[in-house]
Task: structure prediction
Amino acid sequence: MVRGLLSFSRAGWLAALAVAVLAPLALRSPAHQNLLVLTGVNVMLVTSLDLLTGQSGLLSLGHAAFWGIGAYTSALLTLRAGVPFPVAVLAAMGAAALCGVLIGYPSLRLRGHYFVLVTFIFGIIVTLLLTSLVTVTRGPMGLPEIPFATVPRFWGPPLVLNTFQDKVGYYYLVLAGVVLTLWLRGCVVKSRMGRALAAIREDEDLGQTVGIGTHGYKMGVFTLSTAIAGLAGSLYAHYTTFLAPEIFDFVASFDLFVMNVVGGAGTGAGPVVGPVLLTMVRDLLRAVHPVLAGILFGFFLIVAIAFLPEGLVGRWERLMAGAKCSAKDSKRSVPQIGGEGVAWDAREGEVLGAGGGMGTELAAGRAVDGSALADDQPAHLLRRATPILGVEGLTRNFGGFRAVSNLSFQVFAGEIVGLVGPNGAGKTTTFNLITGFLRPTAGRIWLKGEDVTGMPAHELARRGLVRTFQQTRVFSRLTVLENLRLGVHRHEPGGLRRALFGLNVEEQAALDRRVQEVLEFTGLWHQRDRRAEELPYGEQRMLGIAVALAVEPEVLLLDEPLAGMNPAEADATMALVRRVRDRGVTIVLIDHHMETLMRYCDRLIVLHHGEKLAEGPPADVRAHPQVIRVYLGDEAVFLR
Amino acid sequence: MDLTTALQFAVNGLFISAAYALVALGLTLVFGVLHIADFAQGALYMLGAYVSFYATQRLGLSYFVSVPVAMGLTGALATLNGALVYRPLQRHGGALTFIAALGILLILQNLALWLFGGDFRLIASPFQEGKITAGGVVLTHHQAFVLGVTAVLLTGVWFGLRYTKPGKALRAVAQQPEAARLVGIDSARLGLAAFALAGALAGAAGALMSPMRAFDPHIGAIVILKSFAIVIFGGMGSIPGAIVGALAVGMAETFTAAYLAAEFADLASFALMIVVLFARPQGLLGRAWA
Result:
């Protein structure tokens, strides 16, 4: 998130800018100045790529294709249609972004490696098209004599150099592009959108649960990224004045990716350091031996990946942050650009957290609840007549297996309802169906009188239905505060002005208040600046609930909130759940702690083999003969 | 557009498919077991062709000897890759190993450029101009030989995976790596075996095609991209998928070149791939994976 930009301070950026501005004065040979221009183009490309890989966790291996689309669009328009340069630049950005939308819309819906595959293949197809459409692009012969970049006279005072024919003049034009790109990235990263992208990178399901429409954000960032690539293409075309398809082939995409990884994906200065360094290194190697350069470059790359997976800047930041990060961290920081990070973290989290205990805060807070509870009772009893959530004939088949079968029940406002049943009874499937993670085979779901069957999770979150997950799921690499900032995402005002210039003071204060309130309520305020993965197990689980609470749900679905807790911890958590209910939130929860559920739930719904076996107040369910026989076994242990 | 011409194209398509099937089989095998898209195999195809070239032209070996020699060398090189590069990188996850694979491809390609030069090569087929003609459709003896060897190799791999102990273990690792470890299967060693097999298949394809298709150090990249298209088409990790995909891509390519234009031949296979990706993301015969 913001961590990268802060670590490379404002002074550092200004110093870098000063170096960049003065560089052509020091490097007077045309070869060096040529290198400066190309480095600038690479910085733009890698920065735009980093918006995908580093910020959003989307791997694109076809980025050079968008660069090529921009370059060819701009070149052909000026060459064949005599379009002025500024218009051609805009057209290049538009063309690249349009292709981004066309490719992104279908592929960003799918998870996993599909996006990598689609971008990779798209890159190959673009190169092949540029090669085979000989009548338009002159194919493998290349496109020569592209006009220099000229700006019409009416732009700016007449004294301004308006043909960028010399390398230094052009370098400053490219530098302007670089500064614009970096500024835009800074705005995105710090904005509401940037936080949504971090959520997508860390855990997309959880992001949807807190009301983030992830597909829209992914489309947005991909469009922006491809538009910047198109801009870089246009600047490149009118500089080299010659284009050939192989400049933009999959090896070029691969090079950009390498620059991103070596610099440090998702770090503040990485997308600048990587291309600057590697463009120079490659040039030096080429000067030694052109073929050797290819071999050594590939070799360096593999060594870099093996020993420096977090990139140069990532490593530097870690060294600066001190030696507190152990080997575990270095392993964790990698999957940021891989795909499998989430699964690993979840698995490890469980192992690591097994020994942790609940904070004493919770246990202490519990004594207070008891009395608060008694006072509030009448208020929520009054509201109990209103059904807030209902399912009707809900059915879900997995192949031939019927996980949930013709299930109907209602939940009334202000209730705490426990969904219980043996393992495999269909409890979590029911939650997944209600919260839009699975589509029902048959049946309807109602929320506040509205049919919400098949509605995606983020839409449901906006309507006040929020869930937690069975495994501990938090944005583990983000701090507790950042987690909560994602929780209040749907309450944060958006818009272009705020994206570019930030929130105003009142808006910021309102958000901060919400966050602080939830953190104090859940007893996590003192941990606010720690990364979620550093918290003990119990607090990580509490953070999961806190994030859900920050969304301000009307109905909260908790999937095994007591898993892995001892009876005291479970009691403390349930006391908190009851306090949440007393604030007007209706609660449905799954758990196996029967004793605890009996004490805290208003009603229990018992599932068995996907069907409803019994429903009613705990005392009735406890006495239900079917339940005793099927669920608790013939011996009815707890009747003792 | 008479039937005989179409049949002739089908035969040519089948022949091209054979080479693709071998490379794609190796690719899908390694992906199935280790979840690595091993693009370095493209370079092994290229090296297979060069081994065959140098063995026959410079060392005067028989072409029939050069094919197994190429398989042995490329298989060994693939094992080396697996042990020295992929295994240390594996803990970093799929994306970085994929990048490393591309890195190896580029290193080997540049090494070949350095050692062998950039000229196109073609070696003489031991069958010279011999051909079988049936109803106007021509099948050269070399094509028949390649089809035969491919059939033997594919059957051998299929049989080995189905009935031999290491083959079964490989399939077990592909399906349930953790469970396979629990029952005592050494998945690291099997991974190397998968690399060796895949490398040998790629080398065989390169050596088999070297008298038919002119090659230079860049051919590896083209071949592996096509094979990747095939693997995606058929479903990553699916062996029947790789064979069906090879047929589809080989045919699409031949018929596009014949009836549309030669320069659209490559485009056809990748267009096919992207259509499949959008319509059926897990591939034709693949299981859903994410």
